[in-house]
Amino acid sequence: MHQPSSPGTAAAPRAAGVTPPSVLSLNAYLMYATGKAARRRLTDALTAHGLRLWHLTILAMLDEAGRLSKGDLASRLDMNQSDLTRTVTDLDAAGYVVCARDSSDRRRIEVSLTPSGRGALARLNADVFGTEADLLAPLAPEERELFASLLRRVHTHLERDRSVTGLTGGLSGPDLRLAADQDLRPAP
Q: What is the mean predicted confidence (pLDDT) over 118-139?
């Protein structure tokens, strides 16, 4: 770790924006700083389309899983029901999803991706791919694959840990934003 300077001696000034080597040895800091930069760039790409990360995540989930109830979506994404409802309402207003009552259980609202939503997802994925390519530019293609594989492994471990500890009740407010910021893509 960082060695404090002796009394009476001044620490050498650091250039602005240069992270001390002792901090660069902290994986948690590297994940935080890299995630923050990735989130900023991804947010810019999504904002250009008038959307946020949860919009992208829900579109991707519906594309992969097909029609799901709002409850199933909230559960799969570990998202607070009211936050999910607001996000689905945004997507419905944009014409990207359609909501309908389940004919066998009128209390359930099922959400489906529309052709317009599928097209929006394709455009978003292209922008996200470009953003990721820029972020990962220092890595060779095989390093990118390894990096993604390692991130998925850590993510899976954390999801498993969350399930074991019973932390699957959904998030809201600042906790929801933090969770969304920490995961740029739905798990495969």
A: 94
